Amino acid sequence: MEKLFFLLSGENLTLPVSEAKAILETEGYTYNIVELMDQVLRLEALTESVKTIPIRAAYTRLCALELFVSKANYTDILKTVKNVDFKSVLKPGESFVVRINRIKNYADKIINTMELEVQLGQQILNQTPETKVNLKQPDKTFIGIITDEKLVFGLKLTEISSKTFSERRPRKKPFFHPSAMPSKLARCMVNLAHAKTEGTMLDPFCGTGSSLIEATYIGCHTLGVDAAKRMILGCRENLHFFNINAEGLILADARKLPFYKIDCIVTDPPYGRSASTLKSTTKDLVHNILLTAYNLLTKGHRICIASPKTLNISTIGTSIGFKHIESHFAYVHSTLTREIAVFEKTEV
Q: pTM of whole model > 0.90?
């Protein structure tokens, strides 16, 4: 295994790390966490494991092969970089560029990032005299992240653009509803549920189709259910807009689903003024859908479900028999914070 690091989004404190781990687990890659830093996850894993990150991740910005870690000051950095074998990653005739990113204001009074880029570039040239710097179209990019008063430095393996998610945000879709799940969060929930390529994911409250769209983009078969005909028609309109065909869109009560087995479930049940709770309290609705999910899932399979933080959904899930894997919290507005909970069925 190689030492790798992931630059994570700062949009949520806990979701990016859990998503990255969930992707590796879903794809069957073994990994060891080395260190969790502010927006940087250092780990040991096979280099090939990062190939799945650009396809699946919502909250990872880039992945890199780690070359060194040092304290964030010029003395320690320049001392450490002299012991790095750059010839092992940079071949004669190749061009390169060095880029340094700073998280928040770490070491801002100690290090000038542009100056550090020049100094590190010179060190690399000294060790690989048959290479050259190319600022616009380099063959390889070395990336450094200043965070937690350290510099994590390595060779960029892949970079993930967030542009596609912005193009699929709720108001960009032809059918809009104020309770619609943002595309990034929907993708993250799909990953947390360990949705597998060619597996079948169900959303029993599919709404505008955010989870169905995001799951389809990573290769899942999808099933959507909603009790409101208007939502089913709107969901179908959104799917067609993105050239997506779900395995089925069904007008039905999520508490009485016409299935007997599903690989995983991702859902955001209705709550709040703009949503219908099927003439039931939100607590009862969540309890019933978790109970239904328990009967649909087999051992080792997961449901990722959103609910208001005030509901304390972890207690509801464990009372039914699920193992509560984790919870994350996403602020929506002054009266609503979503709890994103992941449950796993551990018994047959």
A: yes
